[in-house]
Amino acid sequence: MLLAIPLFGPRVSPRFDHAQRLMLVTLEEGRVTSREEILLGPLAGWQRVERLKDLGVDIVICGGIDRESACQLGEYHIRVIPLMSGEAIRILRDFKAGKIAPPSDGR
Q1: Could you report the per-residue pLDDT of 44-83, keeping only the tens digit for each?
Q2: What is the DSSP letter of 17?
Q3: I need a surface site. Which of 29, 38, 56, 81 has the fewest CB within 10 A?
């Protein structure tokens, strides 16, 4: 599973569409097998969605997200966990521990 967390410094970015960086985490059997940060720069919302699709992201954990981006991610079967805040590492730890459940994707 490939997890993406938009960043603002070491924290989850309060807005998906303003994050300059993204933490990508590969999880296999509940363990982190890789973690990297990539630059997003000044991409428009639709370009961010396309970038996540091209990267093969399965789940996005973010702060606020606009409806259009959330819908576009859903069209690509990328699940979104919105309205998260705090240190990205803590959010990742909570997700791995099952304290943050991934939303149903309807499949």
Answers
A1: 888 899 999 999 999 999 999 999 999 999 999 999 999 9
A2: G
A3: 29
Instruction: State the virtual CA torsion across 12, 84, 90, 73 in degrees, nearest 10.
Output: -70
User: Residue written as tokens 């606020």?
Assistant: 64
Tell me the HSE value of 10 on the side-chain side, using a 13 A CA sphere: 3
Cβ atoms < 10 Å from Cβ of 59: 21
Residue 86 phi, psi (nearest 5) = 115, -170
What single DSSP character describes residue 66? -
Query: Could you tell me the pTM of the whole model?
Result: 0.90
- Three-state DSSP at 90 gives helix
β-pair type (59-61, 79-81): parallel
